[in-house]
Amino acid sequence: MSFVPVRLPPDRLVEAAAVMGRAAKDDPIFVHALPVEEERVAGVPQMLATALRIGLAHGEVWVTPPPITGAACWISPAHPTVTAEDRDAAGWREVGAAWGAEAFARFQAFAADIAEVLAPLGAKPHWYLAWLCVEPNQQGRGIGGTLVRHMTARADADRVSCQLFTAAPRNVPTYEHLGFSVVHAPTLPRSGLRIWVMVRQPGVGAAG
User: Fold this and answer.
1) Each residue's pLDDT tens digit, 137-190
2) Residue 25 Cα distances to 28, 33, 38, 157, 180, angstroms
3) Model pTM score
4) For residue 188, which of 123, 130, 125, 116 has the smallest C-alpha distance?
5) What is the 3-state secondary structure (H, E, C) of 60-121?
6) Are 24 and 107 in contact (CB under 8 A)?
7) How far apart are CA 139 and CA 142, in angstroms?
8) Reduced to 3 states, what is the DSSP secondary structure of residue 190?
9) How many helices (H) and strands (E) does the chain have?
10) Which secondary structure element, helix H or strand E, spans residue 197, and what is its range?
11) Residue 44 in contact with residue 30, Cβ under 8 Å?
12) Which backbone phi and psi does 23 adopt, to 5 degrees?
């Protein structure tokens, strides 16, 4: 599918979060935090809306031209650490209230463990791909790849690396095709989830 990514208009944030929620509903992260599917249907878009607000404030969010069918949320090299204040400003506490104490505690523990794993990689400037989501009935058409390459081309030009992690093993080959390599694949202590930390060096797989 051929298209030119556009920046997410802030007034379409809820639309983008809904698309992302449908795409990420069964991501192991959210299955762990919200084991009941009905709760995930409601709760995942709420959490991803906060991710989009953080991306708009401290990075860039690129989407398909509306109607939105895919979104890539990046954190800028200029803001490598998402702080508690960033999350609170994006509505993190409101999501916690909606999810309930137990579910939110599971997610917070996961987020803390992830931050610890990623900390050693944060020394050099990099673009961080926080979320890449494509509407389920539009997957397999190259939308995600186009969204990612839009930013990796710029990172190449600036000689900056890109990083991400995934808890879904089926995503690993997709990112490898886009030039990312697994650098660490730990099992997190509190959730028991395995994650794959991936890095793309400038110029790797640029033509892919």
Assistant:
1) 999 999 999 999 999 999 999 999 999 999 999 999 999 999 999 999 999 999
2) 9, 11, 10, 34, 24
3) 0.95
4) 116
5) EEEECCCCCCEEEEEECCCCCCCCHHHHHHCCHHHHHHHHCHHHHHHHHHHHHHHHHHHHHH
6) no
7) 7
8) coil
9) 8, 7
10) strand 196-200
11) yes
12) -70, -35
Which is more confident, 80 or 139? 139
Query: How many CA atoms, within 13 angstroms, populate the side-chain half-sphere of residue 172?
Result: 14
pLDDT of residue 205: 65
Q: What CA–CA distance (Å, rounded) separates 185 from 198?
A: 9
Q: Which of 167, 151, 152, 136 is nearest to 203 (CA)?
A: 152
Residue position matching structure tokens 């989009």: 52
For 61, the token pair is: 């969010």
Q: Which residue has the tokens 């802030």?
A: 10
